[in-house]
Amino acid sequence: MNTLTIAKREMGSYFTSLIAYVVTAVFLLMSGYFYYTNMVMFVMFVGSDVKLGLWQQTFYDMRFVAVSLLPLLTMRLFAEEKKMGTIELLFTSPLRDLEIIMGKYLACLAVFALMLALTLLYPVLLKIVYQLEPAPLAACYLGLFLMGGACIACGIFLSSLTENQVVAAMSTIGVLLLLWFLDWNEGIAGSVVVKVLHQLSFSEHFLNFIRGVIDSNDIVYYLSVTAFFLFLTGCSLESRKWRGIK
Amino acid sequence: MHAIEVDHLTKYYSNARGVIDLSFEVNRGEIMGFLGPNGSGKTTTMRMLTCFFPPTSGTARICGHDILKEPLEVRRKLGYLPESVPLYLDMPVRSYLSFFAEVRGIASRQRKARIDEVLDKCSLTHVAHRLIGKLSKGYRQRVGIAQALLHDPEVLILDEPTIGLDPQQIIEIRSLIKGLGATRTVILSSHILSEVSAVCDRVIIIHEGKLVAVDTPHNLTRRLQQTPKILVRAQAPADAITQTMLSIPGVLSVKPGIEGPGAFIVAVQEGLPVINGLAQAICAQNWSIAEIRPVDMTLEEIFIQLVADDTEVRRR
After folding, report:
1. Distance of alpha carbon B265 from its chain centroid, rounded?
2. For chain A, which residues score pLDDT lower than 70?
3. What is the predicted pLDDT for the residue at A246?
4. Which residues in chain A are contacts of B147 at CB distance < 8 A?
């Protein structure tokens, strides 16, 4: 119940401060551009395989937009409250830390879901002139949504560590990019290490989704990354108890 | 049962002293003033009482609930105005209060009536729909107080409630707080002594994290003043009136006062009704009396003396 109260306030804040509009606009602009260029490429060179290849390519491009924009949504969640001192109001209200964290997480996730929902316009328009398979597309959306959820959790954690929003955003982008490219070092690493890095990195799990494969392994992976970062956020908030905030 | 019981509360920061071994009680319905120079540990104490962070050792009970064992219960009983008056500046006053009403678990049917009530009490009704960020400091302060009052808490903790307000607003806020004290327990911190003496029933004085004194302003005066003093202001030749007053039994000394020409501070023996004798003696000489009254120490004087004693003790 309290979680929803917090989430409602955060949503309101996203929309009154225009952040949500700006981030959504940029997201739509970029994803629309990628969709358009991929479409042109497939129509001109591939022709027949638009069913799968188009979405695979478009979502592979869109993940980048998500990774670079989501930190801008998460950066304020705790950093701003700490800077303004309003965190003191939350911590002295009858709220559990978990309710505060989940409220903020859900609000941000809802804005991201809204951004994704608006991109549904592309396939809807395409369906008018072309017979689409909805299932692979659904897998793409699920993958991007889960990946975004993990990005948001990571961003919330880093936002809880600082009262500077720019620091929160930059460090989140850094961590997320690292998670994406974790498995690039195949050449020099031994085979076991590569296997582990593959499992840890964002990219391998995401590629399955955009290939149209929904594997419980990948779902569990993103959910555990999310849970892990939210747990760390809890620890970070808890640390005020032994760290003595001035 | 006391509304607030503080039991050997101690807080160390990693690089500084917070408060050391603080113990005191606040009765129900009492307005307690919390006095100390800047950095003496007032805010630290309040933050522990509101469960913002836990003490290093010791504990406290608010309405019988332990701050370590039942922090959520304690927070339910408390209304708190933090020192910097943090507010969500991007929200209108009414939505802001509505958010906290929800957080405080006020049933949705009573919410509107309750918000209207605190808006009215804090004279905010006419700005209810404005963004908090667009309001002046005085109004923001009142929004902060309104938030603290929203759930009709048994205990109110106000950290420097009148700082940065203009004199008119200070008077308004003070009378608001005084009105609250009738039914609720209030702790209010300040480093402005006149404010505390105007509003509070009892005073806690802390200095460098340690408790220096807990008492009523009146008792503090009595304790520190070795001999009672009387201020006399009269139109009379200075030498003659000094001689006349010294001749009255019970008068120990007469010194010219700082309250202008014709003012004298008369030190008298404890327990003798000297003031009547003084008045009669002066009238008998046909001098006119402008003023004659017992002098209390101001809280400023008490404070400076206590803090000076404390520093003195520590130096030894």
Report:
1. 28
2. 46-52, 185-190, 242-246
3. 43
4. 89
Backbone angles phi, psi at B50, to 5 degrees: -90, 10
**How does pLDDT run across B88-125, given as a tens digit for each residue?**
999 999 999 999 999 998 888 999 999 999 998 888 89
How many distinct helices (H) and strands (E) make up chain A? 13, 0
Do residue B18 and residue A95 have CB atoms under 8 angstroms apart? Answer: no
CA distance A161 to A237: 8
Q: Is A244 domain-assigned?
A: no
Compare CB distances from A2 to B52, B54, B103 and report the shortest one's residue.
B103
- At B307 the pLDDT is 73
Domains of chain B: 4-222 (3.40.50.300), 226-295 (3.30.70.100)
Q: How many domains does chain A have?
A: 1
Is the ipTM higher than 0.90? The answer is: no
Average the pLDDT over each of A234-243, B67-76, B195-204, B226-235 and give the range with the smallest value. Answer: B226-235
Best residue in B53, B132, B140 for a mutation probing chain A (most A CBs within 10 Å):
B53
Environment class of residue A171 by beta-carbon count within 10 Å: exposed (0-12), middle (13-18) or buried (19+)? buried
Q: What is the identity of the amino acid at B199?
A: V
Q: How many CB atoms lie within 10 A of CB B122?
A: 23
Of A17, A95, A243, the CB nearest to B103: A95
Structure tokens, A13: 């804040």
Facing residue for B84 by CB, picked from A17, A85, A243: A85
> Counting one residue from A and one from B, how many pairs have CB atoms under 8 Å apart?
73
| pLDDT value at residue B312 | 66
Residue of A86, A108, A97, A104 lying closest to A231 (CA atoms): A97
Helix ranges (DSSP H) in chain B:
42-49, 71-77, 93-103, 108-121, 137-149, 167-181, 193-199, 217-224, 238-246, 274-284, 299-315
DSSP string, B278-291: HHHHHHHTTPEEEE
Q: Is residue A227 part of a domain?
A: yes
Collapsed DSSP state (helix, strand, coil) of residue B235:
strand
The residue among B99, B131, B141, B145 with the most chain A CBs within 10 A of its CB, best to mutate, is B99
Give the distance from residue A223's alpha carbon to the nearest chain B alpha carbon, in angstroms. 28
Cβ–Cβ gap A92/B95 under 8 Å:
no
B166 touches chain A (CB under 8 A): no
In 3-state terms, what secondary structure has residue B161? coil
Q: Quick one: chain B helix, strand, coil %, rounded to 5?
A: 40, 30, 30
In a domain, A185, yes or no: yes
B78 contacts in chain A (CB < 8 Å): 92
Report the distance separating Cα B312 and Cα A197, nearest Å. 65
Question: Residue B172: pLDDT band by 50, 70, 90 thresholds?
Answer: confident
Q: Determine the structural domain holding residue A12 and report its residue range.
A: 2-239
3-state secondary structure of B259: coil
Residue B315: CB atoms within 10 A of its CB come to: 6
